[in-house]
Specification:
The chain is an alpha+beta fold. It is built from three helices and six strands, in the order E-H-E-E-H-E-E-E-H. A hairpin with a 4-residue loop joins strand 4 (66-75) and strand 5.
Length: 125
């Protein structure tokens, strides 16, 4: 479910400016993948550490007075754990979105709950 403050004009303006300033993180790490197939060699590729991307996003959003917040809540009726992500601006404007994470039955098993969370955010291929 999508929710927001009555106006999001200042938040939208700040977010547009922040997005224009975002840059890709430097690909400073190298990974090597060995093939399980006989006769195929190794493949290497460069990639950026997640921490570099997060540093760029945090710094850029912070310069434009935008904060991200995430909270969880239990929806007893639906039997689900929900995640709420909020973008908040120094002006007091905000926009939030809810996402179901996993059934309540998975909460007793942190590993299964984490797997359910990861599946929801994995890119589809």
């Amino acid at each position: 479910m999508h929710r927001s403050s009555d106006s999001v004009a200042a938040l939208a303006s700040a977010l547009a400016k922040a997005q224009a300033e975002l840059v890709n993180p430097e690909k400073s790490l190298i990974a090597t993948i060995r093939s399980a197939r006989p006769g195929e060699g190794e493949r290497s590729f460069r990639y950026a550490p997640l921490s570099s991307g997060l540093d760029i996003v945090r710094k850029t959003l912070g310069q434009h007075e935008i904060a991200t917040l995430q909270t969880t809540a239990i929806d007893q009726g639906a039997g689900m754990v929900n995640l709420t992500t909020t973008l908040a601006h120094a002006s007091g404007e905000w926009i939030a979105s809810d996402w179901p994470i996993c059934p309540l039955t998975e909460v007793a098993s942190p590993h299964r709950m984490g797997t359910a969370y990861a599946r929801r955010y994995a890119p589809s291929r």
